[in-house]
Design brief:
By secondary structure, this protein is an alpha/beta fold. It has a single domain, classed as Phosphoenolpyruvate-binding domains (TIM Barrel, Alpha-Beta Barrel). It is 48% helix and 16% strand. The protein starts with a helix and ends with a helix.
């Protein structure tokens, strides 16, 4: 398993930008990877991306040497295992509201003695053709990135306990769903939602873990970084549509 430079940067206290991809396109991943992001996150929660397509997207990122992880909407060991076996450099598990759920996410992503992930000579292990599986296990346990998302009031209340879970690298706020769960559908900037995200940020930083949040553009990245977030989750689709919309508007305005 390759070194996970994004995980290493986070461990060193640095900031990481991950480009989220929710379109089933290996070509898009290859293009983005060649631009040199720290990390690419394939969103399998809010997309039609299936496992076979996901594996091709991992291969595309591998070409440029950029780690790619899977955002997964089900905190189920067998589901997590399949994405990791396909070659993902880590997982981002959504809707984590308790420390037990966070522990389950870690256990699903790590091999014994750190977790309960099942072992087989899969693509992630280079089909068992590059040395003993025991060597691969040690590398995978060291390099696999584990991210969880807090998106409910219960998760906010449990933020400190979640952040304290051994093996977690990042605790990310999911502002859109958190706003919905708090009764402010479509308004992640509502004062009560912002207060909740700040509680999570404080708890995560006190646990000496990296805190993450959604960034829509450069201004968001700069603001979040100043607040102390070190995992900046940026939608490539949002960047693309905003750029194209701006270009079209400017051209049409010029006549």
């Amino acid at each position: 398993m390759r070194e996970n430079l994004a995980k290493q940067r986070l461990a060193a206290g640095e900031t990481v930008v991950t480009l989220s991809v929710n379109l089933p396109s290996a070509a898009l991943v290859e293009l983005l990877a060649l631009l040199g992001p720290d990390l690419i996150t394939v969103d399998t929660e809010h997309s039609t991306i299936g496992l076979e397509t996901f594996e091709e997207m991992v291969r595309a990122a591998d070409v440029a040497g950029v780690p790619l992880i899977a955002r997964i909407g089900e905190n189920e060991p067998q589901n997590t295992l399949r994405y990791l076996d396909a070659g993902a450099a880590g997982v981002q598990i959504t809707m984590v509201s308790t420390p037990a759920e966070a522990e389950r996410a870690v256990a699903s992503a790590k091999y014994p003695p750190l977790g309960r992930r099942g072992l087989a000579p899969t693509r992630a292990a280079r089909y068992g053709l590059r040395g003993p599986l025991a060597d691969y296990v040690a590398a995978a346990n060291r390099e696999t990135l584990v991210v969880v998302q807090i998106e409910t009031p219960e998760g906010v209340e449990n933020a400190a306990a979640i952040a304290a879970v051994e093996g977690l690298d990042v605790v990310m706020v999911g502002p859109t769903d958190l706003a919905s769960a708090m009764g402010h559908l479509g308004d992640p900037n509502h004062p009560s939602v912002r207060a909740a995200t700040e509680r999570v940020l404080t708890a995560v930083r006190q646990a000496d873990k990296a805190a993450g949040n959604l960034a829509r553009d450069l201004a968001d990245c700069q603001a979040l970084r100043e607040q102390g977030y070190r995992y900046l989750y940026v939608s490539s689709t949002a960047l693309l549509t905003k750029s194209v919309a701006t270009l079209l508007a400017e051209v049409r305005r010029a006549g």
